[in-house]
Design goal:
Elements lengths: L9 H9 L15 E6 L7 E4 H14 L12 H23 L7 H12 L5 H11 L3 H25 L4 H10 L7 H30 L1 E4 L11
Antiparallel strand pairs: 1-2, 1-3
Helix pairs in contact: 2-3, 3-6, 4-6, 6-8, 7-8
Length: 229
């Protein structure tokens, strides 16, 4: 993915991310911060994620899920932390799809995704104001949406078979719930639930495997995930 706009100098950005503000010269201004650096695989060249880019990605993801208010509202630490994990997972899956030489999404698919994103806004003026305020060129937005489509296709292809649930598994689960004579509707609901849970578990395992091959360093302490209790 190409980077444009706010990140002018990687060397300067890395320096600013690593150094405390007090170490800057008098009158110095932080123009950008690097949130995380990813090497995938661990021996690869570093790929930086800036705070500006993280906020762009977070807003695009939230708007895509229907939270249009995120277009202009401030992002708190919790939102950024969740967005960071989402972006890093997207990067890793997209790079795995590239490694496996999976088919690219078509221009028509990307255009439909862009149109759907635009329609989340109440009018064209609000959409254009979002692009201008975020300093997000529409071409870059299309790249983000295209990557999302490819990631979803990759996961769908990997999970569709493994998430299948047999009739025996459905019957066993329903029996465990105390349902001796379930209706067809109850069996369908149980199958859907079991399939969804299985797919989620498999997706987590895929992401864990991809993360185990990469070297991910989060440089902003407040965005590091809290250890499980």
């Amino acid at each position: 993915m190409d980077y444009h706009g706010p990140m002018r100098s990687l060397g300067l950005a890395l320096l600013l991310a690593a150094a405390p503000v007090a170490a800057l010269p008098a009158g110095g201004v932080v123009v950008e911060r690097v949130v995380a650096v990813v090497r995938n695989p661990a021996s690869a060249a570093p790929r930086p994620l800036t705070l500006t880019r993280l906020d762009e990605e977070a807003r695009v993801a939230l708007i895509g899920q229907g939270a249009v208010q995120a277009a202009f509202a401030p992002l708190d630490t919790a939102a950024r932390r969740a967005a960071l994990r989402w972006v890093l997972d997207q990067w890793l899956v997209a790079e795995e799809a590239n490694r496996l030489k999976l088919d690219e999404v078509s221009r028509e698919e990307v255009q439909r995704a862009l149109e759907g994103f635009r329609q989340r806004f109440p009018d064209e003026e609000s959409y254009q104001r979002f692009l201008a305020t975020s300093e997000l060129p529409e071409g870059e937005l299309q790249s983000i949406l295209a990557r999302g489509l490819r990631v979803q296709r990759f996961l769908d292809n990997r999970l569709v078979r493994g998430a299948r649930v047999s009739d025996e598994e459905v019957s066993r689960w329903l029996a465990g719930q105390g349902s001796a004579a379930p209706t067809p509707a109850e069996r369908d609901a149980a199958r859907s639930r079991l399939s969804s849970e299985r797919a989620q578990g498999q997706a987590k395992q895929i992401l864990a495997d991809l993360r185990s091959r990469a070297d991910i360093r989060v440089l902003m302490p407040e965005l590091r995930e809290e250890p499980a209790r």
